[in-house]
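Thread: Newbie trying to understand structure tokens

Hi all, I'm a second-year student working on a class project, and my supervisor (Dr. K.) asked me to get a predicted structure for one chain before our next meeting. I've only ever worked with sequences, so writing a 3D structure as a token string is new to me. If someone could post the tokens and maybe explain what I'm looking at, I'd be very grateful. Here's the chain:
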Amino acid sequence: MVFADILRGLHVLVVEDEPLIALDIKDILENSDVSVVGPAARVSEALALLAQNRPDAAVLDVRLQADTTTFPVADWLREQGIPFLFQTSDPDLIGPTYAEVPVLRKPFQAEQLLAKLWISWRRPRIRRMRLSPRPQQCSTHDILRSKARRRRTDS
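---
Reply by user tm_fold:
Sure, no problem. This is what the structure looks like when written as tokens:
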């Protein structure tokens, strides 16, 4: 797997209420040497795990049993600066509030999960790089003008 080496050593929270899907996600991640936090089947379980652990990223099923969503978990992760992705069979459930969050559509293959996880984990780092101050760019005209000033002050 291409992403296995890149993701090795990460700690990832998994929130999924379907036991077989949760086990599948856990196996995919652990086979890539990713440490799994959870899986949690309810929002309360996920928040309790987050109180004890600080994962590097998270995989959240959008809709859990009893028509609850993982949006409270997503909000907490966002406040803490922890990247996450949504997995769902119905992407329409995700509103514009989470437009920038990667979405993994069910059913999915192992490589798709790892790719989306990498995208969600890398995105904050790329954003920080873009926000860092850039060196001031100078045009050729600015450089020549600066040289002319130095010549005048030197003479």
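A couple of things are worth pointing out once you decode it. The chain has a mean pLDDT of 84. The two ends are 66 Å apart (CA to CA). Feel free to ask follow-ups in this thread.
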